[in-house]
Design brief:
Layout: H1 3-14, E1 24-32, H2 34-45, E2 53-57, E3 68-75, H3 76-85, H4 90-105, H5 113-133, E4 153-157
Parallel strand pairs: 1-3
Antiparallel strand pairs: 2-3, 2-4
Helix pairs in contact: 1-4, 1-5, 3-4, 4-5
């Protein structure tokens, strides 16, 4: 997925969130291997296994209307595995993980069932909104289903792989 498409997706995903009312100074995106993601997950969340996405809020204090500053770290290895598992393209899975990470920066969480439902709905809404602006974003993959198998504060991760 091209940088311009990722920027457009980020803008669409964050539209309407209070944290964006003041705009955002900088949200970086890092693509890493499972090995690096495991190291980051262990260092910042004390969970010694890989994950698909981590969000790092780089603001010293969260205040309403304060511009976002953060880093989204995505495991490219998980993108490949999960795109096959969910039968979507790698671009679709990368987009979903980016949206997921951005929603964490905007204050969403998924620890409780109600929070999880709201966050999943926000993910779907952002991806659907972006689909019109980014051709092919939500194309389905054809791979067979596989068996389940940064300074700052780590906010949360997505599904465990």
């Amino acid at each position: 997925m091209a940088k311009a498409a990722l920027r457009k997706l980020a803008t669409i995903a964050l539209a309407g969130h209070d944290a964006v009312d003041g705009g955002y100074e900088q949200v970086g995106i890092a693509l890493v291997t499972d090995a690096e993601m495991r190291r980051l997950n262990a260092a910042y969340r004390r969970i010694d296994r890989t994950t698909d996405v981590l969000s790092f809020d780089l603001r010293p204090v969260r205040s309403p209307g304060e511009p976002l500053a953060g880093e989204i770290v995505i495991s490219t290895d998980r993108v490949v595995v999960q795109s096959r598992r969910y039968r979507v393209t790698q671009a679709h899975e990368l987009a979903r993980l980016l949206v997921h990470g951005l929603l964490h920066l905007a204050g969403h969480d998924h620890q409780a069932a109600g929070e999880r439902a709201r966050m999943r709905a926000a993910e779907r809404g952002a991806l659907q909104a972006a689909a019109g602006a980014i051709p092919g974003l939500l194309a389905r993959g054809t791979a067979p289903r596989k068996a389940a198998g940064v300074p700052g504060r780590a906010v949360r991760s997505s599904r465990r792989a």
